[in-house]
Design goal:
The structure holds two protein chains of two kinds. Helices cover 41% and strands 18% of the residues of chain A. Chain A is an alpha/beta fold. Chain A folds into two domains: 310 residues, Tubulin/FtsZ, GTPase domain (Rossmann fold, 3-Layer(aba) Sandwich); 33 residues, no CATH class. In chain A, strands 3-2-1-4-5-6-7-10-8-9 form a ten-stranded mixed sheet, with helices on both faces. In chain A, strands 11-12 form a two-stranded antiparallel ribbon. Classes of the chains: A alpha/beta, B alpha/beta.
């Protein structure tokens, strides 16, 4: 019923399309944007931002912003996010102009390197100051890429979360469960990129497609605005008679949603359903009923649309946002997060304040640093804080560990709780 | 002696001990109070092949089971042919499922067939392929949404629903224990979740009706079962138990595990009282020479934290399900862990309801077995068996049926 009335209202006075600007930041971002440009995003404008000239030159994006300063001698950031940030601060005005006129800014980036981790948060701030809603779609590096990149990515993510309205984050490591063993490195990156793109597409569809049940831009804005949340997402496609049941099952088993746990923890969930012409209201209802049962605490925004090309198939995109504050209360983090936190030692606080703008002197100082020798002295000392399994579990050493909400209960309670025996 | 028909044996392959309980179900005739279970034998052996309630060394465990069975046979003077086998382990889960069945007959009267159908529907659940069902226990029926129907046969309605509590676990791990017992030329009548067995031994019908929680703190696992309105509402296993306490002590006090075990039994307590402050105990070797001095306060602190955590985890689980407010009969503890001094006082503020040590009820026999918290599960297994046996007898053969009818007729005249 509701859908009908909304449709009627929409016919005489179509809602103005939000102006979307999609930015690719850093090497990975530029490549992601390549994939985006080939896609279905008609009406959006594109721009790429990088410190590296050649990568920009290869990009088909109409607007290219190269952040450059004499001090770097055209060598890029060298994997140092602080340099990336300093550069972006210097060119803040340029970034802000680039964001002018947009109502929504999408930032695509791979975190972990210098440009992606450093520039994204500054760009997000520029976008906000230009009055746009900023959504960032980022990947986190694979575990094999090393501790330093993990740490930089985590820091970048925290900074980004503090600034952007919403961050949709794809830890590459989790995609291992989705790809089979024989996938080549090239394909792997293409798949992870494709996954991230899928979420961009999901949001895009929500914003632009005329639907059976329309999500207005305002809804999205209200949902993510100033939440500074980190989101996970999943895209699933099924076909056949039992597709609506199957889709829920697949959704709850999806590795990116932590087998459905992410839904239970989420406080805002965005669901976009797409089907062929044969999409029935009963199916929409069935899927939504299941999802809302899974996430009782969450505010759910849903949209359903018909795409004639999707014959007999059903396609769902779910984005679940965890509130940053709520997350800090959860005592047990996922193992990869504890790892990165343990490695950096002092990064315990989840809510990182917005990084203050750097002044000229600081910027030059950072820029003039050379090579690995001048890395922060603290980073060398990190080794002592690696989460080594120094606590022997005694007789349970060899047996299957009893993990309860991420806590290993075989380790003596007094040690886990940090009770000192004098 | 040779008539084994009413001999029921419960076998629990636990982490710290293996115990076989031999019971004899008595026919009380018309007086239900007289019918019940009489415990006539008990065999136990130290368990060496089990960790966290699951087999890790089958050969070792087989030897121990044999010892326990032989001891029980000798004491009861019977030959054990089949057992009710208790199972536990961190893989066991319980959940509630609802089955729906539309009543199609013209007069809308619910028949026995409808009841069977709805139960079948409720049992059709989506388990992971590697899991199998241990118990499917009927809770309540709903007729057209009307709650709390215990027997809907003969009622009118168009929609019959039933809630089931399903306990399931990993098939292979469950089979391990069954295979072990079968390998000893013993039959397994049925497998029973240990927590369920304990609750059967401890709770009276009235307590089940009021709502009660049974926590069985064993050597390797803590099993818990929640009853409300007379039916099982929730079951759970936490793979943490007395072994963990000993292990914590061994680690924290830097003593060998066997010594930690002994210290736990001799000086352990669930509460750190003021009297223990600064007290120490000296460990001596076999020659009486002092080896090490252990601080009693530390010992109790370590123990108390571990036990406190167990209760907290159980409480959290029940809180999530919103069951805490329905436990009007309180909490009953059993298992070896219930022997720890002051454990009820530790649990009470965490669960915020009266906590007591469970007493086996409507079971008679060996006084030495009945009062011990660690034999509750074994007794419960035998009791489960006696219920099952009685149910089987409840469906008499034709000849017995005629005999019974004649008997009643004669009595009346």
């Amino acid at each position: 019923m509701k859908a009908k009335t909304e449709n009627h209202a929409a016919v005489p006075q179509p809602a103005p399309r939000p102006a979307v600007k999609i930015f690719g930041v850093g090497g990975a971002g530029v490549q992601l944007l390549d994939m985006v440009i080939g896609g279905e995003f008609t009406g959006a404008s594109y721009a790429v931002i990088d410190t590296d000239g050649p990568s920009l030159a290869a990009s088909p994006a109409p607007v290219k912003i190269q952040l450059e300063t004499k001090l770097l001698r055209g060598l890029g950031t060298g994997g140092d996010p602080e340099r990336g940030r300093a550069l972006a601060e210097e060119q803040f005005a340029t970034l802000k102009t680039a964001c002018e006129g947009a109502t929504v800014v999408f930032i695509l980036a791979g975190l972990g390197g210098g440009a992606g981790s450093g520039i994204s948060s500054v760009l997000a701030r520029a976008g906000k100051e230009a009055g746009a809603l900023v959504l960032a779609f980022v990947t986190l590096p694979f575990a094999c890429e090393g501790n330093r990149r993990q740490q930089q990515a985590q820091q970048g993510l925290d900074e980004l979360k503090a600034v952007a309205d919403g961050v949709i984050c794809l830890p590459n490591q989790k995609t291992f469960k989705l790809i089979d063993e024989n996938t080549s490195v090239l394909d792997t990156f293409r798949i992870t990129g494709g996954l991230l793109l899928e979420s961009v597409r999901g949001v895009w569809r929500l914003l632009t497609r005329r639907g059976l049940i329309q999500i207005h831009f305002d809804d999205l804005r209200a949902l993510v605005h100033d939440r500074h949340s980190e989101s996970v997402f999943a895209c699933i496609e099924t076909s056949g008679a039992a597709r609506s049941r199957e889709i829920v099952e697949k959704l709850l088993a999806h590795p990116l949603l932590d087998e459905g746990r992410a839904l239970a923890e989420a406080d805002a969930v965005l669901v976009s359903l797409m089907g062929g012409k044969d999409l029935t209201m009963a199916e929409v209802n069935r899927v939504m009923e299941q999802i809302s049962r899974q996430c009782e605490q969450a505010q759910i925004i849903m949209g359903a649309a018909v795409d004639e090309t999707l014959k007999n198939r059903l396609c769902i995109t779910v984005i679940a946002a965890k509130n940053a504050v709520a997350r800090a209360e959860v005592p047990a983090d996922t193992p990869d997060q504890t790892l990165s936190r343990g490695a950096s030692g002092r990064m315990a606080a989840h809510a990182i304040p917005v990084a203050p703008p750097l002044n000229l002197e600081q910027r030059e100082q950072i820029m003039s640093r050379r090579g690995a020798r001048v890395r922060k002295p603290g980073s060398k000392m990190l080794q002592t804080q690696l989460p080594l399994a120094i606590i022997s579990k005694g007789r349970f050493d060899k047996s299957e560990p009893t993990i309860h909400k991420g806590e290993d209960l075989d380790i003596p309670t007094y040690i886990r709780r940090g009770v000192a025996l004098n | 002696m040779f008539d084994n028909s009413n001999i029921i044996v419960g076998l629990e392959i636990g982490t710290s001990k293996i115990c076989a309980v031999v019971g004899e179900s008595r026919e009380g005739g018309a007086d239900p109070a007289k019918s019940g279970l009489n415990i006539i034998g008990l065999g136990q052996a130290r368990s060496r092949g089990v960790r966290k309630g699951e087999l890790v060394d089958a050969q070792q465990a087989e030897e121990d089971v044999r010892n326990a069975i032989v001891e029980a046979e000798q004491m009861a003077d019977v030959e054990i042919r089949s057992v009710y086998l208790g199972v536990t382990g961190g893989h066991i889960r319980g959940f509630n499922n609802r089955g729906v069945h539309p009543v199609v007959s013209a007069d809308r009267e619910i028949t026995e067939d409808d009841v069977q159908d709805v139960i079948k529907n409720a049992k059709a659940i989506n388990l992971p392929t590697e899991n199998s069902v241990v118990h499917a226990i009927r809770q309540h029926f709903f007729v057209d949404g009307q709650d709390g129907v215990t027997n809907p046969v003969g009622m009118l309605g168009s929609r019959l629903e039933v809630d089931m509590h399903v306990v399931h676990g990993n098939t292979n791990r469950l089979q391990n224990a069954i295979r072990l017992v079968k390998g000893m030329q013993l039959e397994v009548d049925e497998i029973v979740f240990n927590g369920l067995a304990s609750s059967l031994a401890l709770l009276t019908n009235e307590q089940k009706e009021l709502g009660a929680l049974v926590i069985d703190i064993g050597g390797g696992t803590t099993d818990y079962v929640v009853y409300t309105d007379g039916v099982i509402k929730h079951t759970g296993v936490l793979a943490v138990g007395g072994d963990h306490v000993s292990n914590d002590l061994a680690y924290g006090l830097k003593v060998p595990l066997s010594r930690a075990e002994k210290l736990k039994l001799e000086h352990g307590s669930a509460l750190v009282d003021d009297a223990a402050k600064g007290q120490t105990v000296t460990i001596t070797n076999e020659l009486g020479l002092p080896l090490k001095t252990v601080n009693i306060e530390h010992l109790r602190r370590i123990m108390s934290l571990r036990l406190e955590e167990i209760f907290q985890l159980v409480t959290q689980d029940l809180e999530q399900l919103g069951l805490l407010d329905y436990l009007r009969a309180g909490v009953f503890l059993c298992g070896g862990g219930a022997r720890v001094p002051h454990i009820a006082e530790l649990a009470e503020p965490i669960l915020q309801m009266p906590v007591s040590l469970g007493q086996t009820n409507s079971v008679s026999g060996l006084k030495s077995a009945l009062g011990q918290p660690e034999f509750v599960t074994g007794i419960g297994l035998a009791k489960f068996g006696s219920f099952k046996a009685r149910k089987r007898e409840g469906r008499p053969s034709l000849a017995q049926g005629i005999k019974g009818a004649l008997g009643r007729f004669l009595q009346r005249s």
